[in-house]
Amino acid sequence: MSQRLKVKQILSDDKTHYEATVKGWVRSFRNNQFIALNDGSTNNNLQIVIDAENTDAALLKRITTGAAISAAGQVIPSMGKGQRVELKAETLEILGDCDPEKYPLQLKNKPSLEYLREIAHLRFRTNTFGAIFRIRHSLAFAVHKFFNDRGFVYLHTPIVTASDAEGAGEMFRVTTLDMKNPPRTEAGEIDYKEDFFGRSTNLTVSGQLEGELGAMAFGEIYTFGPTFRAENSNTARHLAEFWMIEPEMAFYALEDNMDLAEAFIKSLISHILEHNREDLDFLATRLAEEEKQKPQQERSDMGLIEKLEFVLHNEFVRITYTEAIDILKDSKPNRNKKFQYLIEGWGADLQSEHERYLVEKHFRKPVILTDYPKEIKSFYMKLNDDNKTVRAMDILFPGIGEIVGGSQREEDYDKLVQRMQDMHVPVDELSWYLDTRRFGTAPHSGFGLGFERMMLFVTGMTNIRDVIPFPRTPKSAEF
Amino acid sequence: MSQRLKVKQILSDDKTHYEATVKGWVRSFRNNQFIALNDGSTNNNLQIVIDAENTDAALLKRITTGAAISAAGQVIPSMGKGQRVELKAETLEILGDCDPEKYPLQLKNKPSLEYLREIAHLRFRTNTFGAIFRIRHSLAFAVHKFFNDRGFVYLHTPIVTASDAEGAGEMFRVTTLDMKNPPRTEAGEIDYKEDFFGRSTNLTVSGQLEGELGAMAFGEIYTFGPTFRAENSNTARHLAEFWMIEPEMAFYALEDNMDLAEAFIKSLISHILEHNREDLDFLATRLAEEEKQKPQQERSDMGLIEKLEFVLHNEFVRITYTEAIDILKDSKPNRNKKFQYLIEGWGADLQSEHERYLVEKHFRKPVILTDYPKEIKSFYMKLNDDNKTVRAMDILFPGIGEIVGGSQREEDYDKLVQRMQDMHVPVDELSWYLDTRRFGTAPHSGFGLGFERMMLFVTGMTNIRDVIPFPRTPKSAEF
């Protein structure tokens, strides 16, 4: 038998007139003659031409959408429209049947994204989700490549943790105790000393604190792993389980941190534009069609590819929180009381509507906001000399809002302990974290990028459940 | 100020006589003149020469092991032994002090691995753990590179799951229910419908089943993420949280699966031999010294580098379980009743002692064992025509035992359901999994590689807690 080749390879090769075997799934079969075969290597199908007259009728009947087949024959130039080459089948074998009466993707009408979410185990087989998850792969690889090229160390920070890293939100408990009859202390409390880890444990909300330990030895590290929030938010923007990338760098001031984050995001976009153009084009077309359904004023003025290239080729705007407040206070929607939360003055926590105004209306560019009031940020952020603001930076993206949150970290032991006490963070429990400030402390910075937020931006999808293979949300943990 | 350069860059560059700024941590300071500076980019230190006579005595006192410093000056050829170049400091700044009375790594005696496990947050700063975790980074990158180069799709399978994938072991519960007063059904059972996900959920033991869903769309996928076992095993080989790599490939028979696994392992070894030679050499020396403490007959006959090159350049032995039983039954330790578990005949589950005999004594090579009795393997493995054995394959490594477990999967719907029923696997709950066999099933295979097992092999370390940054084990979830 001739060598098995992937569809992507055959379609991208200039060669013709050679023997090949292909294996994949039937996307369509028309005129009892033309099979569109997909093997997952690309969204494009290979046309297989069969000689219906000399093919068993029973076999022909089994060539249905979704069936797995193996075909061998000559790769030849195609006479038909839409493809350069096709495979003239000499042999054809059905590896696995697919009953057209039962197959959910057999539907003549295009299945909705909502319906496909219910059959997430099969949605990979559609063009849309094929494109999305090949891009997700590339984006993940680009993350590793970016940091590897720069000498960062990939640090696997723990998933099960006894510490609530930053008070970042509600946590999931991890336990092996008998829920029906847990051991109790004399005082009647649950006795977590009897639990698997000998203490109360949760799923991590962030690898940052452990990441800082790594940065203070390797200089530059990053994490890339699952993180969790037990928030009961059933929205298109929230997941209970999502992936996050958290680099942490010794000897980086806030400016270095911003430079790195901007270079990082641009390198991700550059990578997929180079490696996933077909899939991006497919999603761009999908998005353009979706936009057509919207009223004129809600449509985006840029297509998906344009938007990616715009971010790639423009510097992000960098302004302080204080400057942003001035802009917002004086903005039309604030003066006309169109904001739901009006900006009265300095100190206000920015809402999504404000971030979107800055990014989408005022600057029309990604914006990095820095130096937020200390009251609305985490304990570990470096206090500025004004004693009012911290060296935080949030990167805001059009349509997405905050895509990166980061800061220069407070490296001074005394100041950090003071902040922890002010914010009721347990100093004793984080004694190991404080050791980085006790022993050879140094200026350092880091940030977190929500991987699914980035996926939303590069795919043009609007529901975060459509960019992770198996979404975990309140009341749902299917598959 | 001159540009900040990493120590690795300065030491690997042929240039001399140029200005540079370096930042890092003091490893040692001798004669009030020579600082050995480490910045985590390499195990090698940069010698910084300071002009003690013209340096403030108070500053000199603060140059202690562990202190973070910044130094700038000329990179010049070194007169001293042990280094090609050194930095003649013109300016020196202490960024963070390190009290020699309190710093745990200040010890004059070499700290033990056991002690370093207790201060895992600081052990990255030692040569041994610097080398280990730079290698861990490279090994992880090599995983992604191998699969990316071959067109595999990286699939993030879920961490929180409602299914017990393969009955692979004890699981951790994930819950937000109030442990003190959980909601109950009328029958008095815990009412998991009230839990966050609306059902009982656990931490995943394997991404395989979800991986198969991906393979039946993308053709070839892999996972690389944390997996969990709530087994109360306090040994040098077990972790409650560990990382696993699980590729899953449509249209692969068992032979293709073995070919891929062997090529994969060799590419990992080849990658680190190419990129981490200094760190490997350091660990090889460490291991050789450790071996010297052992009685002659317990010593390994190969050094670390030799062992890696041996695996790289030799084909793995491939034999069936049945052949292995014949060898073991007839072996000296079996005949002399030296095995703890004597091999009486076909059907016996192989113990570590048997695996080690095959790999370390009989073949003296990595061994792939195939076609195990169905009774001792999982439900999803393809049944052979003999109706007795399944198309399983385990790869056994010297000193490690099983490093890879895999199989061709049962693609036949009826046979698979029969096996599930025989083995009391709930068919209804895995209806989504069975859909891969209902709709366009195809021969497919996959395997799992325990990342920390591989780390043990390539680093020569013997305790698995020393090759993961923050080990999770019974009664321990520090940091």
Automatic annotation (TrEMBL), chains A, B:
SUPFAM superfamilies: Class II aaRS and biotin synthetases, Nucleic acid-binding proteins. One of its GO terms (molecular function) is nucleic acid binding. It is an enzyme of class 6 (ligase). It catalyses: tRNA(Asn) + L-asparagine + ATP = L-asparaginyl-tRNA(Asn) + AMP + diphosphate + H(+). PROSITE patterns: AA_TRNA_LIGASE_II. Signal peptide: none annotated. GO terms for biological process: asparaginyl-tRNA aminoacylation. It comes from the Bacteria. InterPro entries: Aa-tRNA-synt_II (IPR004364), aa-tRNA-synth_II (IPR006195), aa-tRNA-synth_II/BPL/LPL (IPR045864), Asn-tRNA-ligase (IPR004522), Asp/Asn-tRNA-synth_IIb (IPR002312), NA-bd_OB-fold (IPR012340), NA-bd_OB_tRNA (IPR004365). Its EC number is 6.1.1.22. The keyword GTP-binding does not apply. Residues 133-469 form the Aminoacyl-transfer RNA synthetases class-II family profile domain. Belongs to the class-II aminoacyl-tRNA synthetase family. Homodimer. This is Asparagine--tRNA ligase. It comes from Chitinophaga oryzae. The lineage of its organism: Bacteria, Pseudomonadati, Bacteroidota, Chitinophagia, Chitinophagales. The gene is asnS.
